[in-house]
Design brief:
Structural class of chain A: alpha/beta
Number of strands of chain A: 16
Strand content of chain A: 15-25%
Helix content of chain A: 25-40%
Strand order of the largest sheet of chain A: 4-5-8-3-9-10-11-15-14-13
Oligomer: homodimer
């Protein structure tokens, strides 16, 4: 629709560096980064025209950051999120089958592992983990997210999780919503600044351990000792580089062991907390019964019968890393649909478009992990809040002149 | 309005006994009991016509029982109750100045101490306390409450709390609502059966003790030892005859020490529980947020700022002496009006006639004891529930034929 202006990387930001490491050294098959920009840009054209296509008019991309450790449910979350927008997220058509990108009508989800500057061999050689910032190219991450946000398509590298190598880049056109998910979306202050909303999936060590035991010991035959050792080995870098990002998140989904069963360490029944930062533009936290007060609620009773150990909700204001937050917590799990709709009917500020939308979304993806507990519930709710945030941003950009009520 | 039928005590109930003890023996100045009955009675007239006046047409009196120990706030409760009905409760005009009765437009409150069969001297001689059933005439209590309920005026004895003697009886005409308050309204099964609604004020031993210390030690100069001794002396009879009545109450107001201050024994800040029996005709229990589930609520937060130690509410289903009950609990006290209206706005099934009626009633009697805590709040709420119960009973008696909606 919009005509295009031609310009080069260099004209966009003179502070940028675009490393083009040799394959021999890093296994990094990176081409020159291509940037595409719509006509609305005020920047002048450059002497190095690389333009191939154009962004979708002047609607700026809304950028969402999702941080979490590997294997913590980011992809499930993304499937829930794109479902809220009505589309199905799929890998780019005709591209690298090992692409980490998911594209739906409105949303593009890119995996920040694609910004690894060191591949598996490279990390091994240098003795750094993927969690280490030195294994990641934050300059490129910043440049490309910034470009997409400004309506410019980019050629993003691909980290191949199967081979552990960096594959040839893929074209990412500016979507309505860009989700950057991975280990470090809020690590670099420049990238952080680009985020319209940020989420941190915080799985407690106890639950991580229980999940790993379940998967690696029961399903893959690893020993308890080796599982413990792998968690311990990962911990220092995780604590140094990943965990501190949660202080910047607008929403944190915290996954803890249940408190309904004393000394439970099975990790099957979870206590999940949705920590929502107050004062975030276009984001009005969900609450239970009474905004701003402190409430605990056991919905199981005369109207709702739950099986052992039941369900317990909590809501209240708290302080989280010095920020005022509102917390909604769910301990326990749903047995049936009526429990979910009952709970939904008592939550406020859900940003649903019709009564029961949360329940409908949860039912639609009943086979996704976490559908019977707070992880699925809060992922779905955060999805609705992001849709609402997106719509508010779009509406605020429209800037309709206010008409006088009087003739 | 209604013409009157003449009959005698004996024609009413042949099982009755009407003791007429001598003044010398018991100080009991009791005349023959006079019973008045409206025309609607199906009973035949008797050979001993004692009729003086008639009851108010065929509207049966609604009878409420209120049980509590002496000095536990029954009279405050009664003033709150009559205020809900719009009138002011006053002693009978031109009668014994030491009458224990309070009469308003709609309500007559009689004190069951008037049914003492033994006066102070008599109790001392026989070595029984006023709590002992042997010091009380349950046959007469039953006969007279039954008569009033059926629209028949009675001549009720008066126990003079000043002199400790039994004075000449006073005429009690059948009111719209009769409240029988005292030590034993639910003790006798026959009397209990006559009650349309019953309330037990249950002051815990810790609070009773703190109150007594406050009053008897600080204000009257009694020693701690003598206070302890008087409580201990009273306890066996209280536990044997008064306390067991709470199992029959439709509503119990339980007054306990606060849990907001660890190890508090001042008795100034109270945790008050309103225990409401389920399945009582014309009585729909008050609830907080969600009927039938379990909730704790600290209203103090972003919208409402409370001073230390704050206010905490609880609501949930429980079992009380084998009965299903709904409990609303308030711990702490109100500092200001806005706290009260805020709380009122979150309680449901209050049976108010307009928004803020509970707060209005509480403000009207801000000088009554307990106005800043759960005792005043729940007394007011029970008053509203009794008004609602009364109106439902009256409406159900009217038995208006149901009109078809279609012509």
């Amino acid at each position: 629709m919009a005509a295009c202006t031609v310009y080069t990387t260099q004209s966009l930001n003179t502070n940028c560096s675009f490393p083009t490491p040799s394959k021999a050294h890093l296994g990094f098959h990176q081409k020159q980064v291509l940037l595409y920009r719509s006509r609305t840009s005020s920047r002048s054209s450059s002497s190095r025209p690389w333009v191939i296509t154009c962004a979708a008019g002047d609607s700026q991309t809304v950028v969402i950051g999702l941080a979490a450790d590997s294997g913590c449910g980011k992809s499930t979350f993304m499937r829930r999120l794109t479902s809220v927008f009505g589309g199905t997220a799929e890998p780019p058509k005709g591209g690298n089958p090992d692409s980490n990108t998911l594209i739906s009508d409105t949303t593009t989800v890119i995996c920040l592992d694609d910004y690894h500057s060191l591949d598996r061999t490279g990390r091994k050689e240098k003795g750094v983990t993927a969690l280490d910032p030195r294994a990641n190219n934050f300059d490129l991450m910043y440049e490309q997210v910034k470009a997409i946000k400004e309506g410019i398509a980019v050629e993003k590298p691909i980290y191949n999780h199967v081979t552990g190598l960096l594959d040839a880049p893929e074209l990412i056109k500016p979507p309505k919503i860009l989700v950057i998910e991975g280990l470090h979306p809020m690590f670099d202050p420049r990238v952080r600044e680009l985020l319209d909303f940020s989420i941190y999936l915080d799985i407690s060590n106890e639950v991580k351990f229980a999940w790993k035991i379940q998967r690696d010991m029961a399903e893959r035959g690893h020993s308890l000792e080796s599982i413990k050792a792998s968690i311990e080995a990962r911990k220092p870098d995780f604590d140094a580089y990943i965990d501190p990002q949660k202080q910047y998140a607008d929403a944190v989904i915290e996954v803890l062991p249940t408190q309904l069963i004393p000394d439970d360490n099975e990790g099957k029944i979870l206590r999940v907390r949705l920590i929502q930062k107050e004062g975030v533009k276009h984001f009005s936290p969900v609450y239970l019964f009474d905004d701003g007060s402190t409430i605990s609620w056991i919905p199981c009773g005369r109207k709702l019968t739950c099986s052992y150990p039941g369900i317990k909700f909590f809501y209240g204001p708290e302080t989280y890393f010095g920020n005022e937050v509102s917390v909604v917590e769910m301990d326990g799990q749903f047995d049936r649909l009526d429990e979910l709709i009952y709970v939904e009917s008592h939550l406020s500020n859900l940003s649903t478009k019709f009564y029961g939308e949360v329940t409908q979304q949860m039912l639609k993806h009943a086979d996704f992990p976490g559908s019977s507990n707070g992880t699925g519930l809060f992922q779905t709710i955060v999805g609705l809040k992001i849709r609402d945030l997106f719509e508010q941003i779009v509406a605020s950009r429209a800037q309709t002149p206010v008409k006088s009520a009087k003739a």
